[in-house]
Design a protein that fits this description.
Elements lengths: L1 H19 L34 E9 L2 E4 L4 E4 L2 E2 L8 H12 L2 E11 L5 E6 L6 H7 L4 E2 L7 H13 L3 H4 L1
Parallel strand pairs: 3-6
Antiparallel strand pairs: 1-2, 1-5, 2-3, 4-7, 5-6
Length: 172
């Protein structure tokens, strides 16, 4: 167990260095108080958060990486990819996003505004500003989107840690 904690601590240290070098947001790190911690017995510490991002009302959650806002806008989480309907871990990822999103989410734009299906692409945060992308990956319910995005390196590193530690539904 000590080796797992050391690896996780090293990953978090790398994330903090990347944030200090301007790879994350300008805000300080926060520790979320969520009911299901990831990888270790402690809740994940996000290297980027967005308490100042614009808040939107949630209409409904479609699946583990897609939700509708109350105004009908469909939002695809920019930083993650979760299992599709009929695949292992689909229900767990969808339920987790539903609990994390609650009634309100905060959105941060990525480098592209929409995907090929016309969905808005955004990094999604809880009402308090904690990264839902980080939590889903750390909980072993999502893979990191590795093609682009300002938080790509952080999320890919977190996925590598989650995989090596056998986190959650996807990696246990």
């Amino acid at each position: 167990m000590g080796l797992i904690n050391i690896k996780f601590a090293l990953l978090l240290g790398l994330i903090c260095v990347a944030t200090a070098l301007g790879c994350g947001s300008n805000s300080t790190s926060l520790t979320p108080t969520l009911d299901e911690p990831a990888i270790s017995s402690e809740p994940p510490t996000t290297s980027f958060d967005c308490p100042g991002c614009e808040a939107f009302s949630v209409g409904r959650v479609i699946d583990g990486d897609t939700l509708d806002l109350s105004d009908g806008t469909r939002v695809r989480l920019y930083g993650v990819d979760t299992p599709e309907r009929g695949e292992a871990c689909y229900a767990e990822a969808t339920d987790r996003l539903r609990r994390l999103a609650g009634a309100t989410v905060r959105l941060e734009n990525g480098p592209r505004a929409t995907d090929t299906f016309g969905r808005r692409l955004a990094y999604v945060y809880t009402a308090e500003g904690f990264s839902i992308d980080v939590i889903l990956i750390g909980d072993g319910l999502a893979e990191a989107w590795a093609r682009d995005g300002q938080h790509r390196d952080t999320l890919v590193g977190l996925e590598e840690s989650a995989r090596s530690n056998g986190a959650g539904c996807l990696w246990s």
